[in-house]
Structure to design on (425 residues):
């Protein structure tokens, strides 16, 4: 159990979300994203990439010139552009007067699945067109491929002089970025955190080739039906790009400036399977979720929405559902949904986007569904799984956002409505 501070310090311990900036295959704002989720609209399209050929992907269409000059974009990376767009939009959404912010007290914490593959593949391709003459190799290659690149590009763009780094956590990275932001605020290392996750994965042919070699790359004649977690005929992952950054603040600071608060982060956990490179272990997933709920002082039946990780693979979805049924064996208040069925798997950005897509439910009391379930796989049956159509609920007080990744990393984040009512305390 995490030790809590004294009541007099509580507002400086509690962390809230006050801004959201995102880009995803369904749009470039939380409003657009939420509208697509409630309308049951898929953002998956046909896509083709060098060496691999035709495939399917979730592609973002945001204005890269909104916060960057052309020269900056040429020097930087796609992941950096996504991170800059999302961070600037989050600050704008939070209503912050950026000119008054002490930027030495701002931290940037970005979860990534991988970084540098796109730039390396592109450079080698260009090299091949010039008979491998190394004189054409870009002198920007090193700053483009260092692991801290997306976060570093944000600091350059926004004049932030506080700490920045990327957190490599496979497909759990979006949650891990958020968790780290919370921790740094509680430690008082920073006064404002830009935290979340980004991914440029669709621009590297290697990820498509690898998933195909594993038999884990989805295909469907209709791209909008390709991402189908929990369906009996699911056949793999749809790779997507995207990003989502949150402005996180200590509650006392947010209240003092009269900020709009999306929700309060009241619990989290990260653990490891120590089991296999790619196969998940349900027992460790259960432990991770239970630890997050314990930290949040919640029982399983107190959770209104569980945002599932399921990617559309046969084995992964079934094992995750086994873990969830261990905690929620019977029907009750809890509903389960999945966002990847709409936008595919945005890798390092996935968890952050999935949390963002559910946050408006605190206001509209609607749980968005999992789409593309024509025949539910019996191994994926969950009590309270919302299928194909949104479900209106009496009230939504708590969201559990789970996300798991390769090499057995598991994460869970619990968010509570703001202001909390007596039943959610």
């Amino acid at each position: 159990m995490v030790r809590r501070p004294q009541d007099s310090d509580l507002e400086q311990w509690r962390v809230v979300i006050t801004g959201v900036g995102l880009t995803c295959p369904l749009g470039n704002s939380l409003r657009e994203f939420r509208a697509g989720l409630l309308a049951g609209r898929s953002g998956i399209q046909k896509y083709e990439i060098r060496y691999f050929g035709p495939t399917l992907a979730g592609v973002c269409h945001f204005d890269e010139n909104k916060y960057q000059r052309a020269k900056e974009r040429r020097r930087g990376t796609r992941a950096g552009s996504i991170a800059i767009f999302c961070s600037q939009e989050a600050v704008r959404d939070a209503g912050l007067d950026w000119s008054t912010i002490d930027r030495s007290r701002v931290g940037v914490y970005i979860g990534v699945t991988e970084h540098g593959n796109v730039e390396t593949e592109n450079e080698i391709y260009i090299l091949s067109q010039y008979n491998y003459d190394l004189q054409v190799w870009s002198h920007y290659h090193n700053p483009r491929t260092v692991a801290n690149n997306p976060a570093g590009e944000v600091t350059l763009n926004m004049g932030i002089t506080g700490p920045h780094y990327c957190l490599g956590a496979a497909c759990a990275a979006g949650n891990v970025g958020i968790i780290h932001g919370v921790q740094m605020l509680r430690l008082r290392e920073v006064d404002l955190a830009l935290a979340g996750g980004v991914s440029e994965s669709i621009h590297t042919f290697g990820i498509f080739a690898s998933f195909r070699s594993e038999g884990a790359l989805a295909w469907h004649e209709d791209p909008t039906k390709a991402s189908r977690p929990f369906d009996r005929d699911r056949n793999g992952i749809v790779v997507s790009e995207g990003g989502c950054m949150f402005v996180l603040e200590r509650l006392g600071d947010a209240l003092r400036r009269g900020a709009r608060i999306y929700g309060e982060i009241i619990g989290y956990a990260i653990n490891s399977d120590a089991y296999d490179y790619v196969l998940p272990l349900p027992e460790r997933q259960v432990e991770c979720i239970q630890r997050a709920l314990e930290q949040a002082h919640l029982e399983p039946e107190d959770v209104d929405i569980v945002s599932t990780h399921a990617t559309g693979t046969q084995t992964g979805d079934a094992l995750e559902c086994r873990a969830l049924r261990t905690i929620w064996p019977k029907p009750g208040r809890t509903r389960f949904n999945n966002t990847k069925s709409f936008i595919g798997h945005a890798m390092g950005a996935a968890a952050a986007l999935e949390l963002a897509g559910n946050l408006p439910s605190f206001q509209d009391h609607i749980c968005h569904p999992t789409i593309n379930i024509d025949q539910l796989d019996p191994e994926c049956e969950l009590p309270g799984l919302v299928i194909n159509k949104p479900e209106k609920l009496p009230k939504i007080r708590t969201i559990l956002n789970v996300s798991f990744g390769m090499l057995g990393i598991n994460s869970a984040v619990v968010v509570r409505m703001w202001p909390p009512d007596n039943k959610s305390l």
